[in-house]
Amino acid sequence: MKIKNIQFKQTIGMRVIKTALAVTIGLYLSMLFNLNSPIFTSIASITSMKPSFAESFKDVKKRMFSSIFGVSLGFILSNVPVDDYIKPFIAGFGIILVIYILQVFHMKEMSLLSSIVFTASFLSKSDKLIYGVNRIIGTFLGIIIGVTINYLISSPNIYEDFLNSARKTTDICLKTCEQLFLSTKDFDFYEFERAYTHTEEIYELLLLEIDTPFHGEINLKLSTDIIKLLTEIYLRLHLINNISKEPDINEDNRQHISDLYKYTILYSGNLSGDLNTVYNYHINIIFKNINELQKLIGVNNGKRRKQVNSTKKI
Question: Which is nearest to 146 in space by CA: 45, 214, 281?
Fold first, then answer.
């Protein structure tokens, strides 16, 4: 079988380097403290290396709880006095209990890790109490290493990521509005929707980052104002996108379009009455929000676009 399209031009990112460094330090410290399960220190180091410091910090409590719970349950169930051929059924029951308890505590994402910890503790041939203590220490050590390295070395700048994403979303919004209002055939509302959703997700990470003890400088008011404006634009665009008829753009909005895109609208659409009034109202608010976004995040679309006149039908 031939393997095609293999490329070795991919760059090694900083997160990969930080993960490798965390594993290396974890293994050395496991040797130093004579831990009998260095693999779990490595696992904790790897899984704690999140795209943002906030995510890494948020997972500390969950990982420690799932580790301690898995080790403790494995230790308890392994000491149940039953014949060896019954023990696999005990292990299966333990897995069900692990997953159920974590779901109750809204930590379903930790089920896999906790199940592995439980199984390792349950099947350990060494002194189970010593093994459990070593396992917990190793996990705690790995988490601390991963979180510390993620913070100290090229810590992800979520605030800057949010601003960059907001700029990109605003730029896509401008293109989307141009396509919609000028009735171009390549209109794609979902490109803006995807960009907006991504920016919203980064904003949620930003809120988590503020709750961490060592976050960088964050202008929360500016970030909140930006996401509110983008959200309002998204909702209004989503609404008018469902109107099939072409609107009759009023004079005020024609001027907005001329200022933004350097287009002159010469034709009117077939939408009329209250629905056309509502359409123009939403367009007007969208343009005002776009202008406000440009002021907040420094997007100057007029300099980028080619200045032409359009006689396309609206």
Answer: 45
What is the Cα–Cα distance from 78 to 282, expressed in whole angstroms? 65
Distance, first Cα to last Cα, the chain: 55
Residue whose token pair is 């490109």: 191
Q: What is the pLDDT of residue 30?
A: 87
pTM: 0.62
With CA atoms as reference, report the closest residue to 103 among 115, 85, 91.
115
Q: Enter the tokens of residue 32.
A: 């130093």
Tokens standing for residue 190: 């979902």
Quote the CA–CA distance of 215 and 212 in Å, as a whole number. 6
Q: What's the number of CA atoms in the CB half-sphere (13 Å) around residue 249?
A: 23
Residue range 11-61, pLDDT digits in tens: 777 888 888 998 999 899 888 888 777 888 888 888 888 777 667 777 777
Answer for the pair 196, 171: CB distance below 8 angstroms, yes or no. Answer: no
